[in-house]
Amino acid sequence: MQTLAVDIAATFIDDAASLATGFGRAVLRLAMRPIDRIANACDIAGVLTERRATFRMWRASRARARLEGRKFSILGRFSPFRHLAHLT
């Protein structure tokens, strides 16, 4: 009986965290839309598209590493700057 209560609590916490993460991403995307539009209009040399392609390759390699069983540190996963990791 105790395991069932722990499983329900863990599921609730995971769902709440996913909901908060999704809501935060939606708000961030909405707030960044005008800035992205201006940046795309000013991108003459194609630097932004190159960085986006590099970020997609980095994310794919990270997902592949995760599938291979490598673990990333908890500190990096919960860092407020993790979304800026692709910037140089």
Please explain how this structure is put together.
The chain has helices spanning 2-42, 47-67, 74-77. With 88 residues, the chain is mostly helical. The longest helix has 41 residues, at 2-42. It is elongated. The termini are far apart. The model has no long low-confidence stretch (mean pLDDT 82).
Please tally the β strands and state the result. Answer: 0
Helicity level, as a percent range? over 70%
Annotation field: number of helices:
3
Form type: elongated
Order of helices and strands: HHH
What does the main sheet amount to?
none
Radius of gyration: 18 Å
User: What's the mean pLDDT score?
Assistant: 82
* Class from helix and strand fractions: mainly alpha
Low-pLDDT residue intervals, each spanning 5 or more residues: none
Distance N to C terminus:
51 Å
What's the helix and strand layout?
Blueprint: H1 2-42, H2 47-67, H3 74-77
